[in-house]
Amino acid sequence: MAYFLGIDAGGSHCRSRLTNADGEILGTGESGPANTRIGIERLHAVLRDVAAQAISAAGLDDAQVAEIRAGMGIAGITRTGMREQLAALPFPFADIAFVTDAAIANLGAHGGAEGATLIIGTGSIAEVRVGTTSFAIGGYGFPISDEGSGAALGLSAMRHALRALDGRSEVTPLSSAVTAGFGHDTARAVAWMDAATPKDYAAFAPLVMDYAENNDAIARSIVEDAAQHIERFIETIFNRGAVRCALAGGLAMRMKPWLRARTVARLTDAISDPLDGALLLAGLPAAALPTRKPDAD
User: Fold this and answer.
1) Phi/psi at 16 (nearest 5 deg)?
2) Pair type for strands 3-9 and 68-74
């Protein structure tokens, strides 16, 4: 019997899904961040862990594990030398294919057909497939990139909150909520920032969205700016030849109401999720995939 393992390794979460050749889910797994920034040894450990969770749930023995074909989408894989380091890692599977997490999101969103996906999660990146050619737009890494993302929202909120503490900008409910976690103490906030990761900044994104939806002036300005970046992403995607575009990522649905109606009208719904895209990468036939809404990182 054939087995297929899909892994979606993103900036906040790593998830796995194991199926048979009919697409029946046999087991799943979940862990924390698994992008290449955490280091190759730690990344390997997380990938092995989520794979083992799915395999254990399925009750496969060593001989069956050796038959697994795996597809893994990993955030940050385009960094210099990462593909080679990943290819050298030991895994007990028959075959493994590695691509970016954006690539598996796009595969899943369009069932392997051409199209584009804009991921708005901890970070942001667009993956575009035109004919047989695939390429990415953005996704250079936080803080220089990731426009419109959760991390970008959190960074803007922190900037505003510190300026408000200084008296250089208006104190709003959002700024007070952000600084409350630091006892409204600038030094404590700066100490936190010294070690903060994109995931840490993105943890403020739901707060920013909540206050924006309740008409906090600064929160609205932050979200409106993020929406402009997302609009520009979408315009560029179509200008570069995409025939369709779907949104994915944990922040996508909350940002969608902030986009112009004409932009939303150009979007299509994803037909499946990034883990199914990873399964397609592994070799699972597209006909075996059920419809699953995206829940990317």
Assistant:
1) -130, 155
2) parallel
